[in-house]
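re: ur question from the group chat, yeah i did fold both. here u go
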Amino acid sequence: MVRPGSGAPADPPPRRYVVYGAGAIGGTIAARLHRAGHDVVVIARGAHLDAIAADGLEYTDPGGTRRIPLPAVSHPGQLRWRQGDVVILAVKTQDTWAALADLGPAAGPETPVACAQNGIENERLCTRFFENVYGLYVLVSAAHLEAGVVTAYQGPGQAVLDVGRYPGGVDEFARALAGDLSAAGFSSRPVAEIMRWKSAKLLANLANGIEAAWGTGICEGSLYRLARQEGEACLAKAGIGFVSPSAERRRRHGLVSTMTIRGQRIPGGSTWQTVARGHAATEADFLNGEIVLLGRLHGVPTPVNTALQRIVADMAAAGARPGTVPLTVYQDLCRAYETAADAPPR
């Protein structure tokens, strides 16, 4: 673009960040980008939208509590979209399709969309509607359990939001987004193989259903080991690469340490929080359920992830509280599937 009569390239339009989904992750991103001086608007729903619209977002991190005056709307069609807009998609995966059905016609296909979500399905869904899709590798400890309130349990520079173009590569926008996120208090870098990192996060998130059913203290035990074995086998059979646990540990080194807020640690992860809020649908269908899908497509048995997907779905449908599935169910699953895993092949 050239300024009339100048003969010189025009400055690029200022970025406005449209954060679609202002829960734990989206709310943290929106609050920190706003505090860093960016133009930010959020798309939210229900009582959470009403609270933000009336009083701003109550955002707490280790530095204290602030009211963040964020413009908020319920639908992307209520915004006047303009060049320079960037979407941070932060709804749970079970809500992505409905969000895209509204977002696509309003924003236009050239608008960059960055997926700050668990799982590996969101970027693929976005590419049906948008030309410029980016993945975010998210390691952010935050909670949203009350309308209008988000709490982050990491200080500046500790939460990770790496950026890469989907399905692979790094471009000028990825570098710019990583720069904005870094300046807003995240540890962010451009990463060419972003989906390998998101696939590794998927494997870690197979513990989410365990945490929702039985609590944080048990979520990395024997059942998770069995679920992860299934997940690694399915990803390998499907030809989906993922970074090694040692690479993830190196990325986390010195970062992602969680602190207490008002003497309390984060109560639970994303699936735990969804169940705690009483929602009828959860992301388990796109975490454990992703492994079940890949197993069925590629002939890999996935009994542990199948059981976890069903348990979380039953909890959500019944309105059960997190951590209320009897421990005997966990023990029975471990015994059954450890025996099956140890059995010699026929």
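okk and heres the other one u asked abt
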Amino acid sequence: MLHGVSVRCIMTQIIREVVMGEEVKNIQCKNCGAGVAVDGKKMVLRCAFCDSEYIVEVPETDAERHLREEGSVIGFKVEKVEARGLVGKWVKKGLFKPSDFLASFQEKEFSGIYIPSYKVSCDVSSTWSGTKKHEVRAASDGEPAEYEYHHKNGTHDKHYDDFIVASGGLDQDEVDRIQPFDHTTATAFKPEFMLGYSAEKPSLSKEDAVNRSKERIREMERTECTKGLDSLDNCETRFDALKAALFMLPLWVFAYIYKGKAFRVLVNAQTGKVRGKKPVSWLKVLIAVLIAAGLIVGLLLALKKK
């Protein structure tokens, strides 16, 4: 075991060839002895004869190599069997899922994948000003209440560790729902971590990730500074000690089909947290609404008779 990843077989020989302009690798399987020509662009290869896995070098630019080497990997702690069990429990929950859901949904895919994400760390200080109203006379005799408005200002300081998703297949909201990830357990990238899993290349640059994070943090700061105010007039946020690095986040992705529509469930492979979408039976929702409305009407009638 290596950081929770089973290393089945490490290749003993790689010979690079160029065939019709495309890179090919010849591997000699240490497990069964077969010699197989494979796609040279893949990092993890599988022997077609005995199912052993191999790690190979993937061609990459200097910028991609630097980005990966300065980043970190959060390893898988939740294995596939456990992840399946967690998804199974999640699937059974829910009052408004269709009655035939458990019997009729079809699994499309269940795979472990490292999702690229930039961890943006920074200290921020926000200077804010706003207005707080105080009631000086309550409404009475048809007259509206009277208020006094007081101007307030202050500062708000906080440290942020914000993860900005750089995946082309998952959006920010999906990954936010299965956070947090404990970044203190992250280690430097090693190709061995890819055995048994796939990994996605970042589809977002570090600069764009930092800009997105700043916008998110500014909004979070505005929310914090608005507390205790009736209106926030101004909020200026200063960023200090800002750093950004690529982190590979471990996820189990469960994709399934129900009545021709695709759904996706994510499992945080570090904590086991499960989030996803289920189809909804609107008939069940309508029945629940009608029952609730009936109870409210019944309660009002009972109070009226008293």
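fwiw on the second one: The two ends are 71 Å apart (CA to CA). Residues 62-88+106-279 form one domain. idk if thats what u expected
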